[in-house]
Amino acid sequence: MAARRIACVLAIGTALAGAGPASAQEVGALNSRNGARAYSEGVWALDAGRFEQAATLLQQVSLDSPRNSDVWRFLGAARAGLKDWAGSRAAYEKAVEINPTDWGSHAGLGVALAALGDAGAKTELAWLEEQVRTCNRNCADFDYLDAMLRQVREALTGRPSPVL
Fold this sequence. Notes:
about 75% helix, Serine Threonine Protein Phosphatase 5, Tetratricopeptide repeat
């Protein structure tokens, strides 16, 4: 899971350095070099468990790039790391609104909802279970998807943790 974030950050860094193009999906709607730098630093801070720093940087980037679902997903994870479950929920809801098929965003939303005692967590769990059935171990990211599903199940037992 961390490898996925790091690959995204590296793609942005490569594009900014002029060493090669990154796809529009990888860079998303990052509107400036400063935004891309703050995004990279925010993702690295998140990966290092520096949730407050990550949340601050990613919140800043969300203002510059409000339609980038990755920014919102990572902001949701940073807020979850701070146990700001309402803030995490809001960020994940935005990520799902922008990219309704993103497993990580649905999983994060499920965890945040479970932490808040919201029955909507079961809806997110059901959505992820359907994705697992559809994948049926045949998709390249099955292990990632299965890990997301386990995190939501665990959160529903009263042990929420950030979806990274």
